[in-house]
Amino acid sequence: MEITALGHAGLKFQVAQSTLLIDPWFSPEGAFLASWFQFPENQHLLCPDLLQPTAIIITHEHLDHLDTWFLNQVPTHIPVVIPDYPSPQLQNKILVAGNRPIHIIKAWTPWKIAEQIQVFLVPEESPMNHDAAVVVELGNRVILNLNDARLSTPQLHQICNQLGKPIDVLALQGAGASWFPLCYHYPPEQQQTLSKRKRLVKLNYMMRAIAAVNPVMVLPFAGPPCFLDPELSQFNQEMESGIFPDQQQVVAWLREQGIENALVMLPGDRWNLEHQTQSYDPQWKDFEFGAHRSYLQAYASRRENIIASFKENYPVPQTSLWQNFKAYFEHLLSLSPYFNQQIGMKVGFEIEGPGGGQWAVDFRPSSQGVFQKIEDCAYRYRFSSRWLVPLLEGKLTWEDFFLSLRFSAWRNPDQYNDHLLGLLKFAEPMALQAVEKYETTLSSQEMITVQSGGKTFQVQRYCPHAGQDLLHVGEVLPGDIICCLGHHYEFDLTTGKCLTGNCPSLHVVRTT
Ligand code: FES
Prior knowledge:
By secondary structure, the chain is α+β, with helices and mostly antiparallel strands. The protein has 14 helices and 27 strands. The site of FE2/S2 (inorganic) cluster has 9 residues, from loops.
């Protein structure tokens, strides 16, 4: 009974003759427009046996988890198991790699994969994020694979209660999967500070999850990515102190916090659940995390031709994209008055190169429309016209594009606009309605008492962003601010106003 690391978030579970794969990512083109690549490389694991699993679980639609190149190598009778999200996007993306059985599993419902393999899936609470944890019961052993999902502490406790036995391995993401702050216009020093802070936020979440489930072993995985296109190679610096720490750094940090039971597993390394022993893939005999610069140089030259021919598939357009842009965003504006109102600003698009222009989309109900003038925008994106073509044709999702880091952005006020990303990434009524329903029915009735600097406040218990319980994840900061550790939105305790994002206010009353 063992787990094999497949690289990045890929894991293989084996018991007797049955094999389950979760999120295998092997594409030689990497992911997100050939920008992310597996670190370190995992191609040596591709063999006929790996392509004949009993089943594959795909946790969510990010392309470093859903690899259609890999699925194309797997016989079409092998089923894929996915969470039940309020949108068919994940299912549709899997079908691109050919027709095969897809089992859509309801949250918390056990699903038998084989004689000694059973799973259940736990999506994040808010339908704004389509991420889900996988609980794998392998014989009498249990693995909780959080991958990119940020489950709340009550959800983690509920998993432990549902299992009624210890968790043998907790696998969770140690490096970020984000374009913030890397693609935003900040002075270099501020950029570094924000990046370090984001790294710490991710590591602190790991600590909370570890404390909540108290696993026998911890496995940091699902990153970091590396960047082999010379246009993006500056982002490899993020491994050093920014948002993409490597596995060894994460384990070292956890050790400093007193967590001694964390593992570094490279692609091909195996963990025996019964004997609690690790077997090392000889491939990594001479590998050193500290020497990643020379490793990446050689890796980049092995992928140079692949990246060049990938880009040739996205030629710059020869005619103006304005009419297509206008039609695309007019349709988007018609999908959800609720989202338009929540976005509540004008967004500019500076499309560089042939076919491009300076265009804007105004989401404010009183001035809504798509325009050829870009002034007065509170948010701006800048990128090459070659990427706008697949975005407008629906061949590339906005979130996959943003994760490619092949753009830059500017915003004023400097606040995260969750609904802007939500509208762009879902762009279909069912998923948008699920978010609207969830957010408009969040209870603001129940209040908790919060002390700050000698003052007392009654505060709405559930965060207005995505409903996490502030009793567990509310941290009071200097200056009468409460930070929701769910996604780090900060609220002014005296007014309830959200200070860091485009989010409804928190219901607050000062009592003393
Ligand atoms: S639930 Fe997202 S910040 Fe609170």
